[in-house]
Structures are given as C-alpha cells and as structure tokens.
Design brief:
12 helices, binds 3-isopropylmalic acid, 2 domains, alpha/beta, binds magnesium ion, Isopropylmalate Dehydrogenase
Length: about 350
C-alpha cells in the first residue's frame, strides 16, 4: 500500500530539515517495505515568489487529496513588507482552515539526554516534563474579524476573539480522549476572570467532562499557567486551551524541554488526515548553513506515521533512532552541552537513518 504525502518544503531552514525527514522516511520505507509517494505542495514564501499566492489553489488541492501533509516551516524577513493577505503565515492559516484542522497537539517531553540543555534548574527538570498541549487551531482571535480603521481621528485596530459552543465542545473531546491514553488529567487554560469567550470555554469544558468520569479536570488562568510551566511543569498532563494562548504556551513549553528544535506537532480534524510540522519557525539567520536541528521535523514525521497511518512500530523505530543519536552525544548547536559533539543538519539526519537501518 502506498501512502501519498503532500510535502511543504517551506522557507529558511525548511528545505534542509525536510530533506532529512524524507531521508528518514526513505529509510523506513526500505526497512519495512512500505511505499511513500511525495507530492510537492508549495506554500508560504516559496509559493509567493513562484505563484504570487502563499497558498495556491493547486497546493490546497494536493493537500486535500493526500493521506497526510508534512510541512517544515515558512516565512522570513523577505516577505515582511507584503500585504497582510499575501503574507506566508496567511497561507498556513488558510491551509489549517481549508483542511478543517481544529486540533493541534504539541507534546513537550524532555529527552533525559537533554537535561542540561533545559534552562530550568536540574531539581525542577528531574521531577519530569511530559505534557501535551491541545491547542484549538481554527478559532479565536486568529480567525475573528480583524479591522484597522479611523475612530475619533486616530487609527484604531481590533481583532475579535470569539468561540462558539460547538468549537469548544469538539476540542474538549480531543483533550479528554488524549488524557484517557495518558495520565488522565486535563488542565483547561483560560482567562475566565476577564473574557466572555473564556467563561463560555470553562462552562463547556465542565459540561463535556461529565462524559469522562475517569479524567480529572482542573482550570487555570493563562497567566498563572505561564508561571506554573517554569515553576513546576511536572504537574501537567494534558493542557487544553484556545488558539492564541496555545500558541504562546507551546513555545514556552518547548523551550523548557531543551530546545524548540526538538518538538514536532500534529494538527487534525475529524478524519485521519493531518498536518505535521515542527513547532519552530524558519530560522532565516541560519538557513542554508547546515546548522539547523532536523529532529523536530523528523519527530513530526514519526507522529504522522503513528497518528495518521497507524504505523506504531515504524513511528517508534524513528523515535528510538533519535534517542540513540542523542545517546551517542551527537548534537546540533541548539542542544550542545559539555561532552557532546557538534554535527550539521545533514549529518544528524544521516545518523538517524543509519540507526534505523541497523536496528
Ligand atoms: C505556530 C506559528 C503560527 C501560529 C504562525 C506561523 C502563524 O507560530 O504554528 O505556532 O501562530 O499559529
Ligand atoms: Mg507559534
């Protein structure tokens, strides 16, 4: 059976980390006799340059006809001055909406080998960091009305943050179902002391939780959560939150695990087709220099095998290979610490492939 994978090579370090992820998928395909068919779907800055549109119709079609989408990272200063509708980020938001990917799962788990790369004290890290952020992805301020106008003779800008009951219910179910497979704890993060959208959010979470008696639900304000994540991240299992809060908290959660260059993510809708991407950006400053950490991209590919293709054995093979590479002390610059060896993006990818093939 062939799996058709839409590939978004992206901007900045995107193409070089994608090259490593595809090499890893090729190694899996060789080892397990599975066939992957890659279909290019230009999106972001590359698509603006080639087609004048950050998400050409053809690319959306390719993604919608695929079994899953693998994406690197998009954007960069080159496109900072283009009009809002033509920015690379617009392409990504339109893709998420076009594929109806309402849930975004962002695991933050520290590899023990990267303990010294975490900015947190060892006494905090050693209590363990293994949480997952379930971020609502196609609602809230990202998709509410955006406006810039003149009011009383001065410029005024606004972005509406709104949620319908239905939008909250479906993400709540994802959070509870995720928790059932883990430590059965959901912490819902909101700003219900100020925002109406958060009050509804909290009410709906409480209602949906009745259907999951085995899962413990707690609530936390987002400012407190930002603080608790650095004070004692071991208290969290599943964090569920709205789009903008989830964007911010997931960057924080990734950094305490050592590097944002280690964390993949998965976005899903109601079916099995997903969009898999590292949570870091396109890092234009180090693009093309063979310095980027390809592991978040590679781990995103592993997530795709598990979540969309039900290939648990192969997903684990990739994760074990990544661990083996870390065990050998092989690192890119972002995760270097005493006693480790600095390698390039390409060499780290190659090392992962070798581990897969020799396992
Ligand atoms: C992310 C990114 C995106 C977001 C940007 C690139 C639009 O920061 O995936 O976290 O804000 O969702
Ligand atoms: Mg972000």
């Amino acid at each position: 059976m062939t799996k058709n994978i839409a590939i978004i090579r992206g901007d900045g370090i995107g193409p070089e980390i994608m090259e490593q992820a595809l090499a890893v998928l090729d190694a899996i395909s060789e080892k397990y006799a599975i066939s992957f068919n890659y279909m290019d779907a230009p999106m972001g800055g590359e698509a603006i340059d080639r087609f004048g549109d950050p998400l050409p119709e053809e690319s959306l079609k390719t993604c919608l006809s695929s079994d899953s989408v693998l994406m690197s990272a998009i954007g960069g200063p080159k496109w900072d001055e283009v009009p809002k509708e033509k920015r690379p980020e617009r392409g990504l938001l339109r893709l998420r909406a076009g594929m109806e990917l309402y849930s975004n799962l962002r695991p933050a788990k520290i590899f023990p080998q990267l303990r010294d790369a975490s900015p947190l004290k060892p006494s905090i890290v050693d209590k363990g960091i293994d949480l997952i952020i379930v971020r609502e992805l196609i609602g809230g301020a990202y998709f509410g009305e955006h406006k810039t106008e003149m009011i009383n003779g001065q410029e005024y800008a606004s972005d509406i943050m709104g949620y319908s009951r239905n939008e909250i219910e479906r993400i709540a179910h994802v959070a509870f179902k995720t928790a059932i497979l883990r430590n059965k704890k959901v912490c819902s993060v909101d700003k219900a002391n100020v925002l109406d959208s958060s009050k509804l959010w909290r009410r709906v979470l409480n209602e949906v939780s009745v259907q999951y008696p085995d899962v413990e639900l707690s609530h936390m304000y987002v400012d407190n959560c930002a603080m608790q994540l650095v004070r004692d991240p071991s208290q969290f299992d599943v964090i569920v939150t709205e789009n903008l809060f989830g964007d911010i908290l997931s960057d924080e959660a990734s950094q305490i695990c050592g590097s944002i260059g280690m964390i993949g993510s998965c976005s899903l809708g109601s079916g099995t087709r997903g969009l898999y991407e590292p949570i870091h950006g396109s890092a234009p400053d180090i693009a093309g220099k063979n310095l980027a950490n390809p592991l978040a991209m590679i781990l995103s590919a592993a997530m795709m095998l598990r979540m969309s293709f039900d290939m648990e054995v192969q997903a684990e093979a990739i994760e074990k290979a990544v661990e083996a590479v870390l065990d050998e002390g092989l690192r890119t610059g972002d995760t270097m610490s005493e006693g480790t060896r600095l390698l390039g993006c390409h060499e780290i990818g190659k090392a992962v492939c070798e581990k897969i093939l020799s396992a």
